[in-house]
Amino acid sequence: MNDEDALADFLAHKKRLTDIFFPNSRSAIISQWVISNIQHYNSDSDTSAYDEFWKFLLRLQKIFARIVKLRIDQSVLPIANFRTELLSTLSKHQVVIVAGDTGCGKSTQVPQYLYYGESNSNDTPGPNSYQNIAVTQPRRIACISLAARVSTEMLNERGSKVGYQVRFERSRTKATRILFLTEGLLLRQMQMDPFLSDYDVIVLDEVHERHWQTDCLLGLVKCLIVVRPKLRVVLMSATINVNTFAKFFNDCPIIQVPGRLYPIDLHYIPLSPVEIANTTDRIDPAPYIRLLRRIDVTYPATERGDLLIFLSGMADIQAIMEPAKAYAEETKRWIILPLHSALSASDQEKVFHVAPDCVRKCILSTNIAETSLTIDGIRCVSYIENW
């Protein structure tokens, strides 16, 4: 196959992908741009420029491959089967409860369903769509990470259609249509604007956790829907006590979304008699280092899979950090990252970065990572009982 045939085949393949994953207008722009450059970089063109254009096409191919994987991942989420039901139910009722187990996709997909409505593309909103959506989260790291994830899936930069707002930090602009914010900030906004007139839909996520801010918002929102009959409210919860919320909102409809189950292997690593005998009030890092070493021995370095270790607090994380970093420096096979609420947003975001080849992440976390966070690449989860 010569260069011209290869280029024609590449263009046809990209045209099919753009028709599927991009709106028609964007597809036409991309196709016209590629065609114009193909005509420009013919065999008589400068060789270096021709090579650069081919390199660009290869980069474009990788981008499209990532988009294809992204769309496939979205389509197989359990929540995807309930999109039409959610939009139809919300058009008839002011309040809808979405009850689903962790991992069903409700936190990332429901805001997008509300924005795009019944549109067949990921660009122009269709029927039953809403243009100003507030999504509350109990934790600031959840706001930031979910905003980043939804921005990626919508092919938008953060601060455009999707933004977040937490205490002392925000990425909200006039163009923002989906805003992730903490429950406390939404309460603060109600002090300034009791009717929350900036929003068409209010999504209260993780309502089953029942923080005091959550309960305050539930009571205030129940009053608000009386004076704003066009306002829509979506409560998202685990499958625990959802009937309590339904009764509070006059038997509002409940959409039950199943979760996804994966095979889980449990490995018990008992402490040695010496470790038990040497136990003090301070946490012993030895069992954790032994766990890192066991993973290194069991799985080859080329095999992806990060480790998430749950600890009881910041003091335990600090006690493990230095010995773990020393082991990581020795083996060159680990990156040790803490995760707790006192970290800055930039430090918290490091846990979402992909580790280099042949290197794994070890995340030392409090219970902040139990809900609302999706850290790609986690293969092992550890909880060690201290004597």
Automatic annotation (TrEMBL):
InterPro entries: DEAD/DEAH_box_helicase_dom (IPR011545), Helicase_ATP-bd (IPR014001), Helicase_C-like (IPR001650), P-loop_NTPase (IPR027417). Keywords: ATP-binding, Helicase, Hydrolase, Nucleotide-binding. Gene3D superfamilies: P-loop containing nucleotide triphosphate hydrolases. GO terms for molecular function: ATP binding; helicase activity; hydrolase activity; RNA binding. This is Uncharacterized protein. It comes from Schistosoma mattheei.
